[in-house]
């Protein structure tokens, strides 16, 4: 029997007795509130907490403006808070409660983590890896996002009606998520949908705009999206249209795909009222 070799990065990930995963990063990371640089580090660590799907950064105290931190006046409680110590951040004329904390792990002693916007109202305003601004949460170095042009035949149905038919998709492969099919606008019946004011951000792709189904069927809102100005790494999806596989019926080269169950499924069910 042959043994598959370990992933070359596997040895860099450490585990703490508290169940945290962490590894050093060589990226230069900065965080700002207004014009004030609160964090400036060339030696951050990435931390993965149990039940959280994305990593966080933690920084050596020497790389943090600790003079802007105060012991939290109303620290959160509960399992997620654990025994960590929270700090309020006072900068640019305002106080942001519980904006920073330490992890209850000896391996991470001397490191401070920060909340990221817009997940909370306490996070820093801007984050940068090297000279590129990043959004929502740190990018996971063990996750890939590849946008590949294809000549597969893709058909999309919603509520039994064909809403897209294309032989020129771009397939987006993202670790731990189903393949998304980004189709040319001319191959999509956008007249069956109406634009909404809903927008989401992704640290790998950029900012998305959405459409909702115009019909009477019980279809969740914001089932269709596009990235008008995607990040350079996924430039082939620019302006193309994609559908939630969790809701739409997608047929690829004559084979109907099963609707996947993903972290988005519950959100979509809530949106439809079901």
Question: What attributes characterize this protein structure?
Answer:
single chain, Metal Binding Protein, Guanine Nucleotide Exchange Factor, Chain A, four-stranded antiparallel beta sheet, eight-stranded antiparallel beta sheet, mainly beta, 274 residues
Can you put this structure into words, describing what you see?
The chain is mostly beta strands. The chain folds into two domains: 10-134, Metal Binding Protein, Guanine Nucleotide Exchange Factor, Chain A; 145-272, Domain of unknown function (DUF427) (Metal Binding Protein, Guanine Nucleotide Exchange Factor, Chain A, Beta Complex), CATH 2.170.150. Helix content is 4%, strand content 39%. It is built from one helix and 23 strands. The chain has one helix spanning 263-272, and strands spanning 14-15, 21-24, 29-33, 36-41, 45-48, 56-60, 69-71, 86-91, 94-101, 111-114, 126-129, 132-134, 145-149, 154-158, 161-166, 170-174, 180-182, 193-202, 206-213, 224-226, 241-243, 249-252, 255-256. An eight-stranded antiparallel beta sheet has the order 1-2-5-6-10-9-8-7, with no helix packed on it. The relative contact order is 0.11.
């Amino acid at each position: 029997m042959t043994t598959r070799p370990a992933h070359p990065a596997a040895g860099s990930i450490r585990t703490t007795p508290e169940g945290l995963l962490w590894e050093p990063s060589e990226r230069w990371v900065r965080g700002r509130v207004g014009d004030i640089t609160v964090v400036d580090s060339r030696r951050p660590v990435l931390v993965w907490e149990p039940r959280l799907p994305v990593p966080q950064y933690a920084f050596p105290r020497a790389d943090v403006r600790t003079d802007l931190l105060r012991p939290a006046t109303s620290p959160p409680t509960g399992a997620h808070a654990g025994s960590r110590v929270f700090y309020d951040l006072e900068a640019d004329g305002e106080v942001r409660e519980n904006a920073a904390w330490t992890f209850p792990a000896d391996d991470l002693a001397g490191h401070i983590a920060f909340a990221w916007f817009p997940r909370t109202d306490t996070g820093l305003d801007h984050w940068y890896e090297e000279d590129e601004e990043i959004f929502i949460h740190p990018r996971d170095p063990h996750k890939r996002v590849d946008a590949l042009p294809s000549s597969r035949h893709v058909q999309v149905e919603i509520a039994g009606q064909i809403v897209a038919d294309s032989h020129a998709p771009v397939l987006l492969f993202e670790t731990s998520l189903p393949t998304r099919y980004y189709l040319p606008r001319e191959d999509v019946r956008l007249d069956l949908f109406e634009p909404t004011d809903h927008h989401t951000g992704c640290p790998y792709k950029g900012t998305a705009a959405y459409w909702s189904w115009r019909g009477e069927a019980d279809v969740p809102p914001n089932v269709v999206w596009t990235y008008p100005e995607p990040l350079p790494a996924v430039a082939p999806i620019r302006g193309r249209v994609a559908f939630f596989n969790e809701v739409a019926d997608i047929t690829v080269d004559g084979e109907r795909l099963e609707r996947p169950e993903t972290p988005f499924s519950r959100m979509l069910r809530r949106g439809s009222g079901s």
